[in-house]
Amino acid sequence: QDVDGGSVEFAGARVVGDGVDDSYLYASASGKGGLPSFELGAVKAQRKGGDGNLGGAGSAEALTFKAGLSHTTPEGATGYNISAGATLVSAEGTLHIRGNSFTAGVGIGAGMEVSAGWRDLDKDGDRELCARISLQFATLGACLESPF
What we know:
- By secondary structure, this protein is mainly beta.
- The chain has strands at 7-17, 20-30, 37-50, 54-72, 78-97, 100-119, 128-134, 138-145.
- Strands 1, 2, 3, 4, 5, 6, 7 and 8 form an 8-stranded antiparallel sheet that branches.
């Protein structure tokens, strides 16, 4: 719970560990930066691994609903994110190669999500431009380190 920062999160059960972040029967609401967002779901599972040059991440969701605007993208970039939708089930994977990353996913649901922004994941001083689009049945995203 981060009331001063403008967000509140509840999870009926949460498992957090080395590369693991799972939530069951969860809800979150945020008003950070004056932009509202809300997420409610039954299951969200996330896995991360790898070193600074090569790694991967995966996530899965079941019975989720989200809507909102944000200055933070799903890739952790600072920019803009808009989302609205309900998901029966979805899964996605991300491959990290140095500062670059490539995301693909599939799902069953209705809605959309669009985001774009900048980050410096590998902390080398060269920012990555990130863009992502999800139409619930498919997700595609990439972060490319500049200069391109």
